[in-house]
Design goal:
alpha+beta, about 30% helix, 4 strands, two-stranded antiparallel ribbon, 2 helices
Length: about 70
Amino acid sequence: MYVNCDSNPEYILQFEGLQVMLCRKHYSKLLNTLNKIAIRYKKACLSEDILVKKIRGRVRFVSKKPIRKKR
């Protein structure tokens, strides 16, 4: 489960030996982040470009590369 999310999980993501359950919103946000990385750097890889932070049994995905925020 994602940090501070109580929605029902709809996707199971196998990542770094973990099974991470994500709701539709957080799965879409992860794909959006990977898409922004791919646009800026011409490629994106989940295992290389995304850092998984584990907090009390839940996860948070953080981009290892800087991506431009919307203004």
